[in-house]
Each structure stands twice: as structure tokens, then as C-alpha cells.
């Protein structure tokens, strides 16, 4: 009870605090002997700052959250204020609602990523994993609907139902049966690779004016994804492969929302020509 408030609210009790300081002392001994860092309880030895377990990853997650918010707001302003609306005040762009949900799920995912990297406990781990799986499942769904130009509501429901069922089942498995890290990585990698392939093929066969942006996101996103599997000890106790992956997603997110805005303008222009 005599620990500072910034440590107590992070659940750093005497036992976990002792583990942390013993870990640092042990790593200093290993460094003097010329030995490489090792993992403790399945995690690399990070140096915390004011109780924050992985300060660089937290800062980058927060920055990703800010970029997602900026992208979502700019998209909202574009479709509702800068582009023409239908007589019933709805947008001409058929995928407006889907991208709104994407923005909300993305911001939610980065929020829990920041919380998880600030303090790794079972609850924050479950929230981080669940929000990431939900986001990846949804982005795979959006990739299918946009690439195949699915606009009919009944068809969208038929395509969405099995994918939503799978993602929901996986999230429930992680939360209530087994928080399996290895299985979750495989599921996330499969969903990420599938949507990258869908976007890549679509960019190759379509004549979309913003296809170069899409190609850049696909190629850079595929390269960045391998940082998740390229595991190495944190540099100076702060920057590891996962933190670097967080850094790469910042410019990719900005570029991705730029493509979404371009797509909205392109589809709106095409539909207005048909109306006239």
C-alpha cells in the first residue's frame, strides 16, 4: 500500500515488482558476462517507465489511434459535406457504413493495444487479442465485399454470416476456454494474408484510379507483417520487433484512409454520371 499510485493502478504488487527488478539485475549480470538477453515468463526484458511496461509500443499504439481517428473524421467530412448526397440525405457511396464500422473497430483495437502494452495481465491480453481478431475478421469481410462489388444487402448478409460466426467462435475460445497465443497468431496471419491477396488481385485487374496506393499498402503491409514473426530482444530495453511493426502501420494507415477517400470520390462520380 506504500507503492506510488502510478504503480498501484497498474497492479504492480510486491511480487511482480520484485520479479521486474530481479529481471533487470539478472540481465545486467548477463550483459557483463557477454550473454544475450533471454525471455522471462515468455516476454523479453523491457524497461518500464512510470509503471508502463512497454512505453515505446504504448506511444506508437496511441499514435496509430490518433491517425485512425484523423482518417475516419476526414472520410466522414468528405462523404457528408464535400460530396453530393442523395435526395434522402444518404451518400451515393455504397460502402460508407462499412468504413464507419471499420474506423470504430480500428480505434478500439489500438486503444486496447495501448492498454495491453502498458500492463500485460490476463484481462488486458484478452481485450487486445479479441479486438485485433475482430478487426482482422471485419477487414477481410470488407475486402471481399468491395473487391467483388457486393451491394445487395441480402448477399452481404449471406457472405458475412459465416465469417462473423467464425470470428465470434474464435474470440469466445480465447476468452473462455484457452488463451492460446500460437493459435491466435496463426488465425490472424491467415486472415491478414487472405485480405492482402484479395486486394492485390483486385488492384491488378481493376482500373481503379487509386490502385497504385492500394498496391503500395498491400506490398508494404505484407513486408511489415513479417515483423510480427521476426522476434528479437528489445534494443536498450525499449524497442522490439512488435514496436517496429506499430511504427510501420502509422504511414500505412494514413495511406489506407487516403485510398478509401479516393474510392468514395470515384464511386460517387461514377454513380452521378449514371444518374445524369
* End-to-end C-alpha gap: 72 Å
Question: How many DSSP-defined strands?
Answer: 0
Oligomeric state of the chains in view? single chain
- Low-pLDDT residue intervals, each spanning 5 or more residues: none
Elements, N to C (H/E): HHHHHHHHH
Give the mean pLDDT: 89
Helix/strand class: mainly alpha
Helix content range: over 70%
Content of β-strand: under 5%
* Global Rg: 22 Å
Shape: elongated
Number of helices: 9
Main beta sheet strand tally, sense and closure? none
Question: What do you see in this structure?
Answer:
- The protein has 276 residues and is mostly helical.
- Helix content is 72%, strand content 0%.
- The protein is elongated and about 75 Å long.
- The termini are far apart.
Short recap of the structure:
The protein is mostly helical. Helices cover 72% and strands 0% of the residues. The radius of gyration is 22 Å and the shape is elongated.
Strand-helix topology:
Elements: H1 5-8, H2 14-32, H3 55-82, H4 96-118, H5 122-147, H6 153-176, H7 181-205, H8 211-225, H9 241-275
Helix pairs in contact: 3-4, 3-9, 4-5, 5-6, 5-7, 7-8, 8-9
Organism: Stylosanthes scabra
Transmembrane segments: 56-83, 95-115, 127-145, 157-177, 183-202, 214-230, 242-260
Subcellular location: Golgi apparatus membrane
Amino acid at each position: 500500500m506504500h507503492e506510488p499510485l502510478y504503480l498501484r493502478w497498474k497492479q504492480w504488487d510486491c511480487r511482480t515488482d520484485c520479479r521486474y527488478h530481479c529481471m533487470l539485475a539478472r540481465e545486467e549480470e548477463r550483459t557483463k558476462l557477454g550473454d544475450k538477453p533471454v525471455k522471462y515468463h515468455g516476454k523479453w526484458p523491457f524497461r518500464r517507465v512510470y509503471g508502463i511496461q512497454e512505453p515505446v509500443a504504448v506511444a506508437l499504439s496511441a499514435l496509430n489511434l490518433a491517425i485512425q481517428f484523423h482518417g475516419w473524421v476526414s472520410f466522414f467530412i468528405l462523404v457528408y459535406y464535400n460530396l453530393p448526397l442523395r435526395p434522402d440525405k444518404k451518400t451515393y457511396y455504397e460502402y460508407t457504413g462499412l468504413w464507419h464500422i471499420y474506423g470504430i473497430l480500428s480505434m478500439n483495437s489500438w486503444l486496447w493495444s495501448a492498454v495491453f502494452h502498458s500492463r500485460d495481465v490476463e484481462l488486458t491480453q484478452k481485450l487486445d487479442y479479441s479486438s485485433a481478431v475482430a478487426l482482422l475478421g471485419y477487414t477481410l469481410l470488407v475486402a471481399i465485399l468491395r473487391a467483388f462489388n457486393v451491394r445487395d444487402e441480402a448477399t452481404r448478409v449471406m457472405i458475412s454470416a459465416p465469417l462473423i460466426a467464425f470470428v465470434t467462435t474464435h474470440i469466445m475460445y480465447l476468452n473462455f476456454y484457452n488463451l492460446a497465443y500460437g493459435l491466435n497468431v496463426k488465425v490472424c496471419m491467415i486472415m491478414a494474408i487472405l485480405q492482402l491477396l484479395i486486394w492485390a488481385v483486385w488492384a491488378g485487374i481493376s482500373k481503379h484510379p487509386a490502385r497504385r496506393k492500394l498496391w503500395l499498402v498491400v506490398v508494404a503491409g505484407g513486408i511489415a507483417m513479417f515483423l510480427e514473426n521476426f522476434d528479437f530482444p528489445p534494443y536498450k530495453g525499449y524497442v522490439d520487433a512488435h514496436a517496429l511493426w506499430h511504427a510501420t502501420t502509422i504511414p500505412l494507415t494514413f495511406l489506407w484512409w487516403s485510398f478509401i477517400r479516393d474510392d468514395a470520390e470515384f464511386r460517387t462520380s461514377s454513380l452521378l454520371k449514371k444518374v445524369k
